[in-house]
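Researcher: Re-running this chain for the archive, since the previous output was lost when a drive failed. Same request as before.
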Amino acid sequence: MKASELAALIGAELNGEDVEISSFSSIENISEGSLVAILGNKIPEDIYSSSAAAFLAKKGADVPAGKTYLFADDAELALVAAVNALYPKKHRDGVNPAAYVADSAIICENVFVDAFAYIGSRAKIGEGTEIHAGAVIGEDVEIGSGCIVYPNATIYDGCRLKDRVIVHSSAVIGGDGFGYYQKHGRNVKIPHIGSVILENDVEIGSGSCVDRGKFDNTVVGEGTKIDNQVQVAHNVKLGKHNILTGQAAIAGSSTTGDYVMIGARAGVSDHVNICSKVMLAAMAGVMSDIDKPGIYAGIPVTSRKGWMREIAYVRDLPNIVKRIKDLEKDKDA
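Model: Regenerated structure tokens:
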């Protein structure tokens, strides 16, 4: 692809020769004829003498002359567009004969269903959606357009995925919530008759679980991205454009606002409400409502500044103990 063509596709300004660009490379592993993004603060000078064909940079960047550059106002978004242009996704369609599709299922145009996928009764699969090998789509499931359900993912009965939702391998959407009454010395399972709704542009990572609601629906808000091995329990309501990273867990009936970021292995207790624009550090523990935007850390959580002060005190405990003992000796002397 010519640099001028790529620049037009990604909304960048070409500066230099109209070279041929065949691939995209990282700074650490540059291949001949590739485009390299120079977006960081510390760019090795030797990359400009490499075999890269061109460089992607933010407009106004201080770069050496004599090379081919694609300058963009938003270089990060231009990078995403460039990679998509250089590595276009190949969409397949058609139903593999080895797949099972119930007679009452509705399959729209340009849908791909791979071998050994299962699509249950009255399921609806929207235009351009891909159902990969071994995926299970339960009865009465509704999947919108442009979705991808990767191999061996499971969508339980009655769940709804809106448009452009991605569910990665081995994720489970709509399994029973973990709810029991302890009666007469035994655990009595509470029926869960709610469902799961994944709004537009949601992505669910491999091995993650989003449980169905007890009586109401579990909802994952528009644009929210969930990493691998994350647990979202019954009746949880996640806001728009949240990010949940690996092994985070949110207990039942908790809610988040918009633009909430939850770090790896952080936990949120049940019936907790978290307002918008909150960031939870890795391994944070939330046991009560958070009603003020900010960065929180620790168990139970406190402000980042407060948590760092606590850690500093804990690490200084040997010195504190020594000082106390010295004071006691002076007192007894």
